[in-house]
């Protein structure tokens, strides 16, 4: 459903992503693992055109984009079918939780107020935030904000949802509530591409792993295989450290 | 003395209400439209247009308001463009104020976190939709205190319009002085009326700020 080939991205003369190729199938819960600075965020941002990759092609549901020449109307049409959950939530600060969710429906998709609000309430219920519908982001905890952000992402029925370290900005005791929501989405069969450092979550919820280092995808494969016998020394080292750190 | 004060008070207040306040209100409203328009062009760094706007700001902030009034009212007729006093004053005040406020609004737009625009894109909104619904409302909240200060300053600056024959408060006062030879009393009196106007606007500003603050904290 989503395939990238030969993606390249630099900031100035520093190459941050080199010859990236990855494929996500419908229903996949794919995780991108790797040390900080590997280029995970940049890759995800390139996949939703928040950064402009200077080379590569992207195929999404049979439609092919040349990343060098893609036009802004094609980008918008693509974004209508995808969603993004940010590390820093980025809820609209001047909107209530409910309005955060309806905005994409009413403004971007021209939906009527009433069905949009019903849909939004349904999504807030799904993430356990219906009772906070009238709250402004400033009055919500990080975990609550991120759950509203997930409701906002879900509301537009995206074909794929990108998550960039959705729990990294949260206090440890708040990560659980967000991961629980994401697990639920995985069980519903949603297609997700997730950058995360939550090894336990990656191991138990994902079915596909991409391991990144220094701007390249070093290794990729089925979750079970990568976690039991990774081919690459670097992957093994990283996973070891990853589990040690969490005292397992 | 008291009799003159009381007799002249309504004579000065009426042009205050009929000229000074409308001149301020119309000019400031137009200035806001100009400011938001210019600020968005500068923020989006639209080539050519952005540079043109920068030149506009440079000229209107770098020359005296009184000179701008003279150029438009006394100068332009020589180039065949005759404008009545009141519209000439509105034109100059709104362009002048627009230049100052454009920079205030632009700074406020730039202070809105980048993630707000990106989040707008990611739910499918266009640049303009995100601007209108998300970025500008947040920016205007930040810009509200400095903009209301500009408004209060502008109430006082409209007295300059007397120089291009607009019969606003100061012009009317000058006429009464010429008739009665009581400059101290009358100029203090007109000053007092300006003070009343500024005080009312300051009060409105406080109320406005309070409203904006509570609106974000409704579920406190
Ligand atoms: N906007 C930017 N400008 C310049 N360099 C950047 C920018 N964003 C990221 N980088 C650099 O790109 C590299 C990859 O960053 P990032 O994608 O954030 O990594 P990760 O998410 O894996 O930690 C880092 O070296 C980082 O410093
Ligand atoms: Mg990152």
Order of helices and strands of chain A: EEEHEEHEHHHEHEHEEHH
Structural class of chain A: alpha/beta
Count the E strands of chain A: 10
Q: Which pair of chains has the greatest number of interface residues, and how are they split between the two chains?
A: A-B, 31 and 23 residues
Q: Could you describe the 3D structure shown?
A:
The complex is a heterodimer of chains A (248) and B (220). Chain A has 248 residues and is α/β, with parallel strands linked by helices. Chain A has 9 helices and 10 strands. In chain A, strands 6-7-8-3-9-10 form a 6-stranded mixed beta sheet, with helices on both faces. Chain B has a single domain (2-219), classed as MetI-like fold (Orthogonal Bundle), CATH 1.10.3720. Chain B has 8 helices and no strands. The mean pLDDT of chain B is 94. The interface between A and B is medium-sized, with 31 and 23 residues. Bound molecules: adenosine-5'-diphosphate and magnesium ion. Residues 40-41, 165 of chain A line the site of magnesium ion.
Features:
heterodimer, A: 248 residues, alpha/beta, six-stranded mixed sheet, four-stranded antiparallel sheet, 9 helices, B: 220 residues, mainly alpha, MetI-like fold, 8 helices, binds adenosine-5'-diphosphate, binds magnesium ion
How are the elements arranged and paired?
The complex is a heterodimer of chains A (248) and B (220).
Chain A: E1 2-11, E2 14-24, E3 29-33, H1 40-47, E4 55-60, E5 63-66, H2 72-80, E6 82-85, H3 97-108, H4 113-126, H5 142-155, E7 160-164, H6 172-187, E8 192-195, H7 199-205, E9 208-213, E10 216-222, H8 223-228, H9 233-245
Parallel strand pairs in A: 3-8, 3-9, 6-7, 7-8
Antiparallel strand pairs in A: 1-2, 1-4, 4-5, 9-10
Helix pairs in contact in A: 3-4, 3-5, 4-5, 5-6
Chain B: H1 2-43, H2 49-62, H3 65-75, H4 85-111, H5 114-122, H6 127-157, H7 169-180, H8 183-216
Helix pairs in contact in B: 1-2, 1-4, 1-7, 1-8, 2-4, 3-4, 4-6, 5-6, 6-8, 7-8
The complex binds adenosine-5'-diphosphate (ADP) and magnesium ion (MG).
